[in-house]
């Protein structure tokens, strides 16, 4: 008969095995809430102060900043790749179809970066600025708070082709949205939850117009759209009109981070990708929409968790990457 090891030895082996697992899977293990506790203790309040100031003259800025973190994280992880401008070595993600003439707030990121640099030079990554900026933006707009995990570093390259293929499209069928989320480790609950970010901000007519005209095989609009909402949208976004005109993603409270799921139940989702969460026959997403619509605190709790999940996508940590001094450029270029 083989004798079991003594309990203390088993504990030691378990600790060793856990340590080994951490070494083998360092990806999010190294992000931490107190990463800048000694090197830049005031970083969160600096970010919040700059955004609060900007919000006085630009009620959309919080929505725009939240979206930047999403578009950064879905392309090779939350590594600041989205922020790099074109240069000799960089083909910018800003020119990819989901971002071109659409993502905004880059000047605000520069302002936040320079405010941080004057307190704590060379310390806080641009990738972390996007993560802190997303949380501050949601809180300043009335949404939930969460503890932002920090310690991301900035990448040295951009991936424009990836920005085109990995970023979800408003015209994607639900199965494609699910698979794009799944590809970065996010599940169906994360998909429904994070789509709730469309409780504020704007979308251009070009992102919804195809639903308003000639959508079905016999030439009509998307039959799912609420008829009074359809009339409103057709007035705002005439056929072959100016595709850059802006529509509110949430018609009733356009600048507040509250709860947009009742819009989906009323067939007033602006983007096809949003409405599909509720209107796709037998989809697993329907019951999640219903539960969030019925209870804002359940949505808020889930949103906080899903933002942490999204922020954990493949960060660069340790000595990988760098701390950029200018979010638009790789150091020394
Ligand atoms: C589920 C897949 C998603 C799709 C297909 C999608 C698509 C879009 C589109 C087409 C726009 C309008 C862009 C324009 O017209 O210029 C938009 C805006 C926005 N998106 Fe999403 N999105 C998705 C998920 C997310 C997530 C996960 C977040 C953040 C957690 C987010 C946050 C926002 C915000 C806040 C805006 C408004 C931005 C502004 O006003 O500047 N979206 N989204
Ligand atoms: C932290 O930053 C805020 C906003 O910039 C400022 O009001 C406050 O005085 C700062 N506190 C410290 C200890 O530096
Ligand atoms: C962005 O807008 C500019 C100016 O209207 C236009 O020339 C350019 O083609 C647009 N780019 C994309 C990708 O839509
Ligand atoms: C959805 O994904 C399938 C399989 O990858 C692809 O063939 C199809 O073109 C995608 N649909 C859209 C609208 O992107
Ligand atoms: C409607 O769409 C169909 C198929 O895409 C196309 O053949 C037709 O020309 C379009 N009709 C109009 C009025 O745009
Ligand atoms: C389209 O609308 C945008 C914003 O509403 C405006 O800035 C732009 O000048 C318009 N373009 C044309 C060609 O009317
Ligand atoms: C259309 O929206 C209104 C609220 O504006 C709602 O009362 C009605 O039930 C909706 N209709 C459908 C078919 O969803
Ligand atoms: C919402 O959900 C929370 C947490 O599950 C629960 O404590 C609360 O009673 C619910 N509120 C309503 C109005 O159902
Ligand atoms: C481009 O990359 C090469 C090799 O990494 C480097 O030597 C060069 O300085 C870079 N040029 C610019 C403009 O960044």
Topology of this structure?
Blueprint: H1 7-24, H2 43-55, H3 61-73, H4 106-119, H5 126-140, H6 160-166, H7 174-183, H8 188-195, E1 202-204, H9 209-212, H10 227-236, E2 246-248, H11 261-265, H12 272-279, H13 285-294, H14 296-311
Antiparallel strand pairs: 1-2
- Helix content class: 40-55%
What CATH architecture label of the largest domain applies? Answer: Orthogonal Bundle
Mean pLDDT: 93
- Order of SSEs: HHHHHHHHEHHEHHHH
**Bound heterogens, unique:** protoporphyrin IX containing FE, 2-acetamido-2-deoxy-beta-D-glucopyranose
Strand-pairing-aware structural class: mainly alpha
> What portion of the residues fall into strands of 2 or more residues?
under 5%
With helices defined by DSSP (H or I, 4 residues minimum), what is the helix count?
14
The number of domains: 2
Q: Largest sheet, order of strands side by side? A: 1-2
The CATH topology assignment of the largest domain is Peroxidase, domain 1
Could you give the distance between the termini?
Answer: 66 Å
Q: Given the C-alpha coordinates, what overall shape results?
A: globular
What is the C-alpha radius of gyration, as a whole number of Å? 22 Å
How many beta-strand segments?
A: 2
Word description of this protein:
With 333 residues, this protein is mostly helical. It has helices at 7-24, 43-55, 61-73, 106-119, 126-140, 160-166, 174-183, 188-195, 209-212, 227-236, 261-265, 272-279, 285-294, 296-311; strands at residues 202-204, 246-248. The chain has two domains: 31-167, Peroxidase, domain 1 (Orthogonal Bundle); 174-307, Peroxidase, domain 2 (Orthogonal Bundle), CATH 1.10.420. A two-stranded antiparallel sheet has the order 1-2. Helix 3 (61-73) crosses helix 5, helix 8 crosses helix 14 (296-311) and helix 13 packs across helix 14 (296-311). 41% of the residues are buried. Residues 100-101 line the site of one 2-acetamido-2-deoxy-beta-D-glucopyranose. Residues 295, 297-298 line the site of one 2-acetamido-2-deoxy-beta-D-glucopyranose (NAG).
